[in-house]
Structure formats: C-alpha cells, structure tokens
Specification:
Layout: H1 2-5, H2 18-27, E1 30-31, E2 40-41, H3 57-65, E3 68-69, H4 74-78, E4 91-92, H5 101-124, H6 132-147, H7 158-169, H8 181-195, H9 199-207
Antiparallel strand pairs: 1-2, 3-4
Helix pairs in contact: 2-3, 5-6, 5-7, 6-7
Family: Belongs to the ATPase alpha/beta chains family.
GO cellular component, one term: mitochondrial inner membrane
Protein name: ATP synthase subunit alpha, mitochondrial
Length: 208
C-alpha cells in the first residue's frame, strides 16, 4: 500500500500516518454543543480481521482509539451461535458503570462462567474422560449459551434480561434439556408478567 501511495512504509507496510488518518476520521464523529457540556463523540468503526487476528496493525490501531470493541467470531457464527460475540475478546471501557446494580451482579457471574466454559470446551475436545464437575460445568455453559440466543425483533426489558441471566447462572436450567431452555424462559417471563408484575419494581428498587 505504501508503495502505491509513494510513501515510506511503516508497520506491516502500511503508511506511517495511518494512526493519524484513523484519529482524523474519528474527529468527524464529534458534535459540539455548549448546552450539553461541550458535545460528544460517537462512532462505530467496523474492521474486518484477517483469519480472526485481532492483534494485527489495523485492529489494534482502532482498538487503541475507541472505548471498547465487539468481536464477532466466524467460528461461533458457523456453529449457530448468533450474535456470534466472542465474550473473551470483546470489552468495554465503560463496563459496569453503565449498568444498574442488579445487572452488574448477574452479568459479572455470567461472563466468568462463559469464559470458563470456553476454556473447558476447547479442552474437552481432546479429553476422553471428564470428571463429573467438569461435565456439569460444560452442561451449564451450553445452557447459558442457549439462554443468550434471542429471536429477531423480540427485545427484552433490562428487568427481563436480569431475571433470564439469574435463572441460568444459579442453576435453575441445569435439569432441563438444552432444547427446552428457550421455551422455559419464555414461559417464565410470561408467568412473571401475568402473576408477579411487581418484579420489575423490586429489581429497580434494589438497584437504586
């Protein structure tokens, strides 16, 4: 690329001013407003990695500028997991600061269990004899992964998300077959709305 542009090559043969070009593009996302604390900056850059290599020059360059990233994995997509978000690599610098108290508690446990499940799943491919605890952890991870699948045009309130995640991370889905998980959760949310509508107020009150 540098040769075509007749510029001195930098890292991975890209021009040396690529970081400046990226930051200049980001500046175009700024909106100044003296009434709103001098404005804000909102941008959603999309980068295609080569063979899933997030450590290449362009991905790391963009990651260093932005406040976090969502990493979509082709392997997860091909396995039928959609949205195919790799929770191990995806990160937000805002993090739990944008979450209510109840969501912080359940989401932290969910992320830890999913990360452990991913490691065990890779290990289990090469292991022939797994102990009972490992089998149980793999089984729960599969149900948590199923729990996160969401139908198109079927949004959930924050309170419904909290109830759903809490149900999975506290073992209430462990006795169900994987194919029954989504049906159970749909019926659980419908039951709470019909018979315990105050659950949303309780969650919000405990989060204040």
């Amino acid at each position: 690329m540098s040769l075509l542009l007749r510029r001195p090559p930098g890292r991975e043969a890209y021009p040396g001013d690529v970081f400046y070009l990226h930051s200049r593009l980001l500046e175009r996302a700024a909106k100044s407003s003296s009434q709103l604390g001098e404005g804000s900056m909102t941008a959603l850059p999309i980068v295609e990695t080569q063979s899933g290599d997030v450590s290449a020059y362009i991905p790391t360059n963009v990651i260093s500028i932005t406040d976090g990233q969502i990493f979509l994995s082709a392997d997860l997509f091909n396995a039928g997991i959609r949205p195919a978000i790799n929770v191990g690599i995806s990160v937000s610098r805002v993090g739990s600061a944008a979450q209510i108290k109840a969501m912080k508690q359940v989401a932290g446990k969910l992320k830890l269990e999913l990360a452990q499940f991913s490691e065990l799943e890779a290990f289990a491919q090469f292991a022939s004899d797994l102990d009972k605890a490992t089998q149980n952890q793999l089984a729960r991870g599969q149900r948590l992964r199923k729990l996160l699948k969401q139908s198109q045009s079927a949004p959930l309130t924050v309170e419904e998300q909290i109830i759903t995640i809490y149900t999975g991370t506290n073992g209430y889905l462990d006795s169900l077959e994987i194919g029954q998980v989504r049906k159970f959760l749909v019926e659980l949310r419908a039951y709470l709305k019909m018979n315990k509508p105050q659950f949303q107020e309780i969650i919000n009150w405990n989060s204040s």
